Amino acid sequence: MPSPVQTLGLLFIGFYCQVSAVTFHQSPPSIVKENTVVQIDCSHNDNSLPFMFWYQQRQDRLSLTLIGYGYANSPQNYENQFKEQFKLSRKSSTTGSLVINTANLSHTAVYFCAASTHSDVVQ
């Protein structure tokens, strides 16, 4: 008999890399319960990169899908399919968060943050 509480497995990659002397840190991997709020934090150490981008990579796809982007103290920009379910926030030019309002199985993916000097996006 199925359990009344379903568990949602979301893999959030603990992302640490150094590219051109910029270091990124992301929240560690997590497994969360369905219908909970999930927050993934990201930071980097370069004030000259004001734009932060968030991407989703689903298990069945090799490519990354842009969720949205923005810079500190400004409204964030979302791709249409992510507007209702996700919220992006920026605490400063080097820190930001991705929030999944009500996590469900369709959100199972690896999430990445990135930073840039401009908002030009290749999709």
Automatic annotation (TrEMBL):
Which residues are in coiled coils?
none
What is the annotated signal peptide range for this record? Answer: 1-21
Give the source's domain of life in one word.
Eukaryota
Q: Keywords assigned by UniProt?
A: Immunity, Signal
Q: Which positions, given as ranges, span the membrane?
A: none
Question: Per the UniProt entry, what is one GO biological process?
Answer: cell surface receptor signaling pathway
Q: Which Pfam families match?
A: V-set (PF07686)
Q: Name one GO cellular component term.
A: plasma membrane
Ig-like domain ranges (all copies): 2-123
UniProt xrefs under PANTHER family: IMMUNOGLOBULIN V-SET DOMAIN-CONTAINING PROTEIN, T-CELL RECEPTOR BETA CHAIN
What's the protein name? Ig-like domain-containing protein
